[in-house]
Specification:
With about 525 residues, the chain is an alpha+beta fold. The protein has 2 domains: about 220 residues, Periplasmic binding protein-like II (D-Maltodextrin-Binding Protein, domain 2, 3-Layer(aba) Sandwich); about 220 residues, Dipeptide-binding Protein, Domain 3 (Dipeptide-binding Protein, domain 3). Helices cover about 25% and strands about 25% of the residues. The protein contains 15 helices and 26 strands. A hairpin with a 5-residue loop joins strand 3 and strand 4. Helix 7 runs antiparallel to helix 9 and helix 13 runs antiparallel to helix 14. The two termini are about 40 Å apart. The N terminus is likely disordered.
Length: about 525
């Protein structure tokens, strides 16, 4: 996949603040809201999805996609009105929606698709279009894709935020400044300003009339102006929600749920989670070049203890790398990673690490001391502290270092890490390619894993699957191999807890998507 995926390195938390211009006639009341992006989405450097490895929810508003997914991860038309595949999967015909324009007035048509897809060449996200051999313009609003090989994941790719449709003309004109000084899509909001790591201001696209059928409102949006502030600390964002400074907060930490339930003005929605929290292990540095040490490290993590004590039992334990709703997560049980301190200790004994009088293991006069990196928000720090104590119980001394989410990504690329606590947000097995492909060492392949057999299995899953069923089987085999190499310790699968001030924000009763995204935000409004 690609990122992080993201959405990727983790999940993005959002909050909305509603404001009304009092004294105006009802028809002139301005609807303004502020989304506060917290935690792992802080520091996204650009709104250019084609080159991105990390994106936030603004991309769902600036841009549209050919296809959208609903809450059951089924596909629905958007900029593509319909599509048809040949029986052998070697060509696809897409009928495009008419009357759509980019924010700069340029028309969206078949030539757009040709120019847009060409922009992926040479980027980290090129793999999403690699199966396409040629693109034929059939007429102004019809394109035909001729394939190098079948790609059963094509529709998912076209629904991905990383395949949001950008204006090829704007990209060409702005060059490296695209996504920073301007970002031009066909979406319900226009980018007015962007200060990296601080604030993004979006204004309503008043010409928007082509919302997907997943929205009751086909556009324009009901909220006029959205200001996206970046607040890295979850507790700070929650305090603003509780005190009335903001209207909606994404991914509310479970610790705060009792306080929210006790506040009459607040409402909470719980959606199925798309996130896995895990601890990558850097296989290229000592002592983790020894698979026995990696296995012992993973087996030291007590998933149930973390679920019960940090998350109050809300969510689920993670025992492999994929969200449990994916078929590729249903591996042979022998590959699942579960807490087993007795085996962890035995493996370290076997590897020559003997327990010292201070409770820390040693080998050749060196202590078993490692670094454990984490991000600065409360949730990640608490989980890291729990993992630190669990590693201490098997004689491993882990020293925690805290970084902000943008700095930590740059440091991974320098290969100075050993262990880390991270999360990703993605609903497709191609996340395995993203985090473990030998082509992406450093970041996002934080485990620094580069193994011929893994590369072979990855290639088979990514490019040699002819049907969806074959793709699932191939990814399951690839997943099992990665698990057998002990490249990470799975930790936790959260649900999506979304809380909002029901006295100030009207949220649709039904969330039509894998999360609270553009199709639902189109239907939101500030209560007058």
């Amino acid at each position: 996949m690609n990122c992080i995926r993201k959405i990727l390195s983790g999940t993005a938390s959002l909050a909305l603040v509603g404001g009304l211009s009092f004294g105006l006639a009802p028809a002139a009341l301005a609807q303004e809201a502020t989304f506060v992006i917290a935690s792992s989405a802080v520091g996204a450097p650009s709104y250019y999805p084609i080159k991105a490895t990390m994106l936030n929810v603004s991309n769902y508003l600036i841009y549209d996609r050919l296809i959208e997914q609903d809450e059951k991860q089924q596909f629905h038309p958007h900029l593509a009105e319909s599509w048809e595949s040949s029986p052998d999967g070697m060509n696809w015909v897409f009928k495009l929606r008419q009357g759509v324009k980019f924010h700069d007035g340029e028309p969206f048509n078949a030539q757009t698709i040709v120019d847009w897809l060409a922009l992926y060449q040479g980027t980290d996200n090129q793999f999403m279009i690699d199966a396409i051999d040629k693109i034929e313009v059939v007429d102004e609003h019809t394109v035909k894709l001729l394939m190098k090989q079948p790609d059963p994941n094509l529709l998912f790719n076209f629904s991905s935020v990383f395949m949001s449709v950008v204006s090829p003309k704007a990209v060409k004109e702005l060059g490296d400044e695209y996504g920073i000084t301007a970002a031009v899509g066909t979406g319900p909001y226009k980018l007015e300003s962007f200060a990296v790591g601080q604030e993004t201001v979006l204004t309503r696209n008043d010409d928007y009339t082509w919302g997907s059928k997943l929205s009751q409102n086909q556009g324009p949006a009901k909220i006029q102006t959205l200001t996206m502030r970046e607040i890295p600390e979850q507790s700070t964002a929650f305090l603003e929600l509780k005190t009335g400074g903001i209207d909606l907060l994404y991914d509310v930490p479970t610790d705060f749920l009792p306080q929210i339930k006790a506040t009459a003005s607040l409402e909470t929605l719980s959606l199925p989670g798309l996130v896995v929290m895990y601890m990558p292990i850097n296989t290229s540095v000592e002592p983790f070049t020894d698979v026995r040490v990696r296995e012992a490290t993973a087996l030291a993590v007590n998933q149930k203890e973390i679920l019960d004590n940090i998350y109050n039992g809300v969510g689920a334990e993670a025992h492999n790398f994929l969200i449990s709703s994916l078929a590729e997560a249903d591996v042979d049980p022998k590959y699942n990673v579960s807490y087993d301190p007795a085996k962890a200790n035995a493996l370290l004994d076997e590897a020559g690490w003997t327990l010292g009088s201070d409770g820390v293991r040693q080998k050749d006069g060196k202590p078993l001391s490692v670094t454990l990196w984490t991000q600065g928000d409360t949730e990640f720090k608490r989980v890291s502290e729990a993992v630190q104590a669990q590693l201490k119980a098997i004689g491993m001394n882990a020293e925690i270092t805290v970084y902000d989410s943008s700095t930590i990504r740059d440091l991974y690329k320098k290969n100075q890490h050993q262990l880390a606590v991270r999360s990703y947000d993605w609903a497709n097995a191609d996340i395995l390619d993203w985090f473990f492909s030998g082509n992406r060492l450093g970041y996002p392949n934080i485990s620094m894993w580069n193994d011929p057999k893994s590369e072979e299995l990855n290639k088979k899953a990514m490019t040699e699957s002819r049907t969806w069923e074959e793709r699932v089987a191939n990814f399951k085999t690839y997943h099992e191999h990665l698990l057998s190499q002990w490249l990470f310790a799975p930790i936790y699968q959260p649900v999506q807890n979304i809380s909002y001030n029901k006295d100030r924000l009207r949220v649709p009763a039904e969330i039509r998507g894998p999360g609270l995204r553009g199709q639902t935000i189109l239907d939101m409004e500030v209560v007058e």
